[in-house]
Amino acid sequence: MTGKLPVKIVYTNLAIVLTTAILYFGKPVFMPLAIAGVLALVGLGFGGWIAAEMATKDDARLGKLVLIDPVGIKIGGPMDRDIQDIWGLHPQKLAALTWFDARHGQRDFSALSDDELTIVARNSESLARFCWQPYMHNPKLKHRLHRIAVPTLLGWGENYGIGTPAYGAAYRTLIPGAEMAVIPAAGHYPHIEQPAAVGDRVRAFLR
User: Fold this and answer.
1) Segment 130-137 mean pLDDT
2) Which site in 9, 18, 130, 136 is 20 to 30 Å from 48, CA atoms measured?
3) Dihedrals phi, psi of 179, to nearest 5 degrees
4) Domain ranges within the chain, ordered by starting residue
5) CB 148 within 8 A of CB 65
6) Does residue 131 carry a pLDDT above 60?
7) Over the chain, what is the mean pLDDT?
8) How big is the CA angle at 147 (ends 144 and 150), to the nearest 5 degrees?
9) What's the start-to-end Cα distance of the chain, in Å?
10) Residue 12 CB neighbours (<10 A)
11) For the whole model, what pTM was predicted?
């Protein structure tokens, strides 16, 4: 038999695998460093998803949990788009939905070197491998969030259009006693667009 065998590339959701690996392999490293109940875990965006997954599995040593614009759950039905398809949007539209000031998301790709363009492409590919199927969520996480028993704060950019504040509000209701702070004039990166407001709110919560 000659010729190359056909190769099928399957993009699966590696975020679920990653969070399990971090929990079970990372736990022996960082958990002994934390006195029970004093460790604050903060996750932003994709990191917020990972933090939520970790907290549902073991929050014994956590004191508080902060999630800023996390993804990871499916709120609506199979045909409802809870989170916009970031790979199907025109770059200008994506920037407008991601940032309060869309100029932060504007990039002149024609001015980038081949090496820089490769980094952009690899970053996009990496995110796809983590979040492609199922898109941006773990079907089981929604049903596990009730396990989180530590004080939790969700921070959300008021102008975030990929996963809107309504998505964040639904996320909050699934975590017992969770608070939600909506940050004005901010999108997916409120810590970048409004660092003082985010810093003040998080510090107040962690006190």
Assistant:
1) 88
2) 9
3) -105, 160
4) 14-206
5) yes
6) yes
7) 85
8) 135
9) 68
10) 13
11) 0.82
The owner of tokens 């199979």 is: 78
Which CATH superfamily includes the segment(s) 14-206?
Alpha/Beta hydrolase fold, catalytic domain (3.40.50.1820)
Please, what is the angle between helix 14-21 and helix 114-131, to 10°? Answer: 80
d(C-alpha 138, C-alpha 72), whole Å: 6
Asked if 13 and 130 count as a contact pair (C-beta separation under 8 A), the reply is yes
Residue 4 corresponds to which amino acid?
A: K
What is d(CA 152, CA 177) in angstroms, rounded to the nearest whole number?
7
Name the token pair of 28: 């022996």
Count the Cβ atoms, other than its own, within 10 Å of residue 153.
21
Whose tokens are 């759950």? That residue is 73
Count CB-CB contacts under 10 A for residue 43: 21
Q: What are phi and psi of 180, to 5 degrees?
A: -135, 130
